[in-house]
Amino acid sequence: MDQVMAPLDKEMAQYLDCAASQVTLKSGTTLKADLVILAMGVRPVTKFVGDAGIELTQRGHIKVDEKMQTSDPHVWAVGDAVEVRNSALGDAHTWAVALGGPANRQGRVCADHLAKIPTAGRYRGTIGASVVKVFDLTAANVGVNEKHLRNLDLPYKAVYLHPNQHAGYYPNAEPIHLKLLFEVSSGKIYGAQAVGKDGVEKRIDVISTAMHTGMPANELADLELCYAPPYGSARDPVNFAGMIAGNIMVGLADTLTPLQLNALSTPAVVVDVRESSEISEDGPLPTGAAKVQIVQVPLGELRDAFPGLLKDLESRDVIFSCKTGSRAHVAACMARQLGLPQAKVLSGSLMTAQICQRSQRIDAVPRVRPAEVRPAEKCERELCEAQDILSTVACVLRSAVETMSDGINSKRRKTGVAVESWHGELIADGEVLTRDHSITGEIGRVLRDYPAGTQSLRELVQNADDAGATVVKFLLARPQSIPNNGCGHPSYLHQGFDDYSGWALYAFNDAQFSESDFKAIRNIGKSSKQSDASKTGKSDWKLLIMDPHQRMLLGKDGERAFARRWNFVADASVRGYQGHVAWFGGSEHRCCFSAEFHGTMFRFPLRTAEHARYSDLSKLVWSPERMQEVLQQFQLECEPMLLFLKSVSRVEYWRENENGQLQLAFCAGLQQTPFLALLRDLCTSEGRSLSKSRFGAVGVSAEQAATHWAAVQ
């Protein structure tokens, strides 16, 4: 099965999707593995029962009646091996549910009938309420899932919502991702699923109780539940679910799920009513439908903009979207009042669309058997969701930019990039690198020494200086367009790269990596410079893609890999993916895959809220505005920093203007400040070593540095 938690629908299971690289036994022994398979579940061992003449189902479960009596009147059965009534669907449907609660209730019913108690009841069936804890998350469900309803061809409506588990103004509020399935005409609740950190099982318990009593979905809105800011909201998530269902049932709202949106074959328009700053921070709305156009009109401007939009919208399906769906509902109501009766709401909006995109991407991942190794050129196209390609050293970390980079820098290592140990042979389409243990854990420990500010920018400059670079350039930008080679070849190695094609920080220096540098990054935090400080060099062909979370990158046998490396000069197939190459500071820094690239370029995608949700490293979101503030602070520190460098003499920061053109924001260098050049040359000529201990903090001004220098002469 290609998901965890079979009772959940695939998109809901994505919240629980994680990777494991080792198993710790009860004895304390740790077993490392490339793949950990969870083979949990039960199958009925009932052949002997069938051999005795008792009727079984096709799957081998024991058939029983409401008294738990088998086809043999002298034999009774309870527990995991029996098939009982599916209370979520009705009398015509049965299923087998291996849960302790139903088994205990079956036992009581059976015992009452065996004891001939006059008030002995009948077993009414089960709705399959269950809960599981997965690390710091809780997942719970009740009833049947959407896949089950589709297989039975039953009419239903699915709605998504993402309310907090308690009042938003109370500390530590976290979303509960809730999905409700119901029949529109009757309000019959078929099932519900929820994933979150706290309060998840409480909400599913309430919905389970409602299903047990036959309460229609719209009446969930009327339930009076316990409320205090630490425990819930005045309008509980269950109330919200009932309100949404009620609006749909009486025709006040019509919804479409992101999966239905992606399946549209007719022209449609999605109106995103988020603010521009939200789109920059959280990313655009993902959709896989070719005929869907997305326009952005903030909710506060929608009424004024509507007359101009009406002519373009009235002949097409119109779906409104925001981050969670609440503002989209307001926008859809406004649109209907203004003459657009077909207005719909994208259920769950951005937060649901992003998780649905992940589930659909998993559908596209090829299932690889060891005996079915694909040709090199096919493997290349099946690389799944690394981050993005950086030119010569294409180092991308999945949850990019924590302290600017989520693990690019190591405090004890100055060779460039920190990654995990790898093993693997060089194959035609790239060297496969798999990890021996958790890289994210090691990176996280390194990052504790780095505050979320200019420290990582200074570290990048220091690494470049150690490699002999003379210039370092930074650029905060997002791609304007992604080129295609005109032959139908995709711009990216995989469509998953779209998630990381937004705002990013680029860092360029004019030094290059050597093979020894790549060997030095095998063990994070264990720099080769501890034994040989001269290990820097040149290289002109290496292209490296990293996925520390090991979620999508595939090796030659289908195993999960944390990195792959190519010779982009010799391997012509790599050159077609020009969408992975970006401009930096001018045409002289064009990253070309057909020739040597004279330098090193890093690309750090800014971590959006969606990236942060799945990051094992940090939950800190980096917006372009936040990164801009850090770079402005970095400008104040650049000139004093140059005093303590051996080779770097210029640091530049470039940014996009309103027209999308690059412009130089600041340039700090010895050429701009002759005093600094004289000071460093004087120190070098006299054999002295400029150090932080002689000048105090790096953040001193040039005038202060001169004063201190005079004092030590």
Describe the model.
With 713 residues, the chain is an alpha/beta fold. The chain has four domains: 19-128, FAD/NAD(P)-binding domain (3-Layer(bba) Sandwich), CATH 3.50.50.60; 135-251, FAD/NAD(P)-binding domain, CATH 3.50.50.60; 256-362, Rhodanese-like domain (Oxidized Rhodanese, domain 1, 3-Layer(aba) Sandwich), CATH 3.40.250.10; 377-627, no CATH class. The strands form six sheets. The chain has a five-stranded antiparallel β-sheet with strand order 6-7-10-9-8, with helices on one face. A five-stranded parallel β-sheet has the order 11-15-14-12-13. A hairpin with a 5-residue loop joins strand 22 (650-656) and strand 23. Helix 9 (299-313) crosses helix 10 (326-337). The longest helix has 19 residues, at 624-642. The radius of gyration is 30 Å and the shape is globular. The protein starts with 9 loop residues before the first helix and ends with a helix. Residues 264-358 form the Rhodanese domain. It comes from Symbiodinium natans. This is Cdr protein. GO terms for molecular function: Hsp70 protein binding; oxidoreductase activity.
Describe the secondary-structure layout.
Blueprint: H1 10-13, E1 22-24, E2 30-32, H2 47-51, E3 62-63, E4 82-86, E5 90-95, H3 100-114, E6 130-134, E7 137-143, H4 146-152, E8 157-161, E9 177-182, E10 189-196, H5 200-213, H6 237-249, E11 255-256, H7 258-262, E12 268-272, H8 276-282, E13 292-296, H9 299-313, E14 317-321, H10 326-337, E15 343-346, H11 349-364, H12 376-381, E16 431-433, H13 439-447, H14 455-466, E17 471-477, E18 504-509, H15 515-520, E19 542-546, E20 563-567, E21 600-605, H16 609-614, H17 624-642, E22 650-656, E23 662-669, H18 674-685, H19 692-695, H20 702-712
Parallel strand pairs: 3-4, 11-15, 12-13, 12-14, 14-15, 17-22
Antiparallel strand pairs: 1-2, 4-5, 6-7, 7-10, 8-9, 9-10, 16-20, 17-18, 18-21, 19-20, 22-23
Helix pairs in contact: 9-10
GO molecular function: Hsp70 protein binding; oxidoreductase activity
Organism: Symbiodinium natans
InterPro entries: FAD/NAD-bd_sf, FAD/NAD-binding_dom, FAD/NAD-linked_Rdtase_dimer_sf, HATPase_C_sf, Pyr_nucl-diS_OxRdtase_dimer, Rhodanese-like_dom, Rhodanese-like_dom_sf, SACS/Nov_dom
